[in-house]
Structures are given as C-alpha cells and as structure tokens.
Design goal:
mainly alpha; Leucine-rich Repeat Variant
Length: about 190
C-alpha cells in the first residue's frame, strides 16, 4: 500500500519524469492500482486526469476500455486525446459510438485519433464510419474515409466507391487509396 501511495504521489507530482516512471510501476501493480487511478479521473487538475488516463492505458485489465470510455468526453482535449489513444491500443466494440461522435470534435487532433481508434476496431466500425461518411462536415467525412481506407475488410469497398463522388478532394484521396490497397480498379494482364 505504501508503494501504491508513493507511485500515485509521483504520478501527480507535476514532474513528467517521475510521473512516467510511476506509470510503469502502477502497471506492474496491476489491479491494485485501478481504484486510485479511477479516483484521479475526477480530479480538478487536468494534468492529474491526463496522467491517470495514461496510467490506465498501460494497465492490462479488462476494465480499462470502460474506464477510458468514461473520459472520452472530458472537458480537456488533452485528456480526450489520451483516452482515445488508449482505446486505439485496446479496441473494443463498446467504444465505437463514442469514437464515431469524437470524429466531430472541434479539436482536430482528437478527431484524427478517433479515426485511428475506429480503424483499429476493424470491420466492427464499418457501419459507424459509413454513417460518418455522409456527414455535412467535410472534416468528419475526411476522418471517416481515412479510417475506412485502413480497414482490411471487403465491406469497406462500397463505402469507398461512394466516397469517390464526395466534394472534398481529401475524401477522394482516402477513398482512392483504400481502393488501391485492396486492388480494386487495377487491371491485370498477361504480356
């Protein structure tokens, strides 16, 4: 218990070196560290919440995605980004609706990371990404097309073909890239 208290103190010390070392120590403690880290998610200090998310993402426990999902709508873009990055490393179906909503985040890095996390969910995210591809917001469509281009599933092909007609050249780029990666539209011949 003394070790846990010391590590939590280091994590919230405002010293990034100590905090990063504490992340490793807390990961080694495993389940024992989950409760104090979860408590830190409610801290008034953004830095404490960010480090709690960082430490939770390093934990190998089935409750981690649910805990990260709980802070995906945090007031701080830094905390949202850390949570989404953690969810990218631990893809889960339950996160897909929140990640799809995060494609609309005003912070474009948060939206970009949400796109990466959705791509990591693979074929399970195709339906949500297909819906996002019809958004009136071109930034959302770009991130949706980029994620679809990264998913190795034949179900993305019709969506990418649809995206070729988008008004955004960036959406067109990602649609073309995704189709090329699947060999769609290529002509093979014997010389």
């Amino acid at each position: 218990m003394v070790e846990l208290e010391r590590l939590i103190g280091d994590l919230t010390s405002d010293d990034d070196g100590l905090a990063e070392a504490a992340v490793e120590g807390l990961a080694a403690l495993g389940y024992e560290a989950l409760t104090p880290l979860t408590d830190l998610l409610d801290s008034q200090k953004t830095d404490d919440r960010w480090w709690a998310v960082r430490a939770l993402a390093a934990q190998d426990h089935p409750a981690v995605p649910r805990l990260l999902l709980a802070v995906i709508a945090d007031d701080s873009p830094d905390v949202r980004q850390a949570a989404i990055l953690g969810l990218r490393l631990r893809p889960c179906v339950e996160a897909i609706p929140a990640l799809a909503t995060a494609l609309e985040d005003v912070d474009r890095l948060t939206a970009h990371l949400a796109s990466d996390a959705l791509a990591a969910c693979g074929s399970r995210a195709v339906e949500s990404l297909s819906y996002a591809l019809r958004s009136s917001n071109s930034s959302v469509r770009i991130e949706a097309a980029r994620a679809l281009a990264e998913i190795d599933d034949p179900a993305v092909v019709p969506q990418l073909f649809h995206a070729l007609d988008d008004a955004s050249v960036t959406v067109n780029f990602w649609a073309e890239r995704g189709l090329e990666m699947r060999g769609v539209g290529m002509t093979f011949f014997n010389p």
